[in-house]
Specification:
This protein has a single domain, classed as TIM Barrel, CATH 3.20.20. Helix content is 41%, strand content 18%. It contains four helices and three strands; from the N terminus they run H-E-H-H-E-H-E. The protein has a three-stranded parallel beta sheet, covered by helices on one side. The longest helix has 15 residues. It is elongated, with a radius of gyration of 15 Å. The termini are far apart.
């Protein structure tokens, strides 16, 4: 989300729910074909514009984004940059037949 877009829509937007898939740029590049920093900047902009923010669907996948240091960095970012009152929804990964290749 660009700054211009957020500033334009902010008078009409009460809340936003943003997915944070991982807290490692390499993981974002490999699995999302995106970059982490723009997501973090959008989260900070939403909070600065006083839009209610929930960070959601951090699906913790063994061997991909389950590193304890990475999760601690995400926790620190959310607490210090967005505030301890920002909800963060974390989901447990369940192995299904179509994604078994991921963990090999």
């Amino acid at each position: 989300m660009t700054t211009d877009m957020l500033e334009t829509i902010s008078p009409y937007l009460d809340a936003a729910n943003v997915d944070l898939k991982a807290f490692c740029d390499e993981t974002y590049r490999k699995y999302e074909r995106a970059r982490l920093q723009p997501v973090l900047e959008s989260l900070k902009r939403l909070k600065a514009l006083d839009i209610w923010l929930e960070v959601t669907t951090t699906l913790v996948i063994p061997g991909i984004n389950d590193d304890l240091d990475e999760l601690k960095e995400a926790t620190d970012f959310l607490s210090w940059e967005l505030g301890a009152d920002t909800p963060w929804h974390i989901s447990r990964f369940f192995l299904h037949y179509r994604v078994q290749e991921l963990l090999r």
